[in-house]
Protein: Sarcosine oxidase subunit delta
Organism: Rhodovulum steppense
Amino acid sequence: MLLLTCPNCGVAADETELAPGGEAHLTRRGPGSDDASFESYLFHRRNPRGVHFERWRHAHGCGKWFHAARDTVTLEVYGTYPAQCAAPPREILDRIAAKHPGFDWEGGA
């Protein structure tokens, strides 16, 4: 079972209390963007085996969105942080690098 701590209200919630929101740190494209950029935004997503950054909403709690860094293979959670962060906090990246030497977050890992 996946357990994530909401950074907004501090509650440790299992996945039944949360709503997934897909990949985190995407550059949103909309009206005025060219077709290729809009297509990329709508359809092209990473689906890694390993470290992944995701959006979650504490649906049955405070209702706020947040980001989580976790391993898609082991379900190990490296940390959660507010959705307003443009990049994962340094302490989470350090935690990931300790488990995965050579890991490099490229602005959308």
About this structure: The chain has one domain: 3-99.
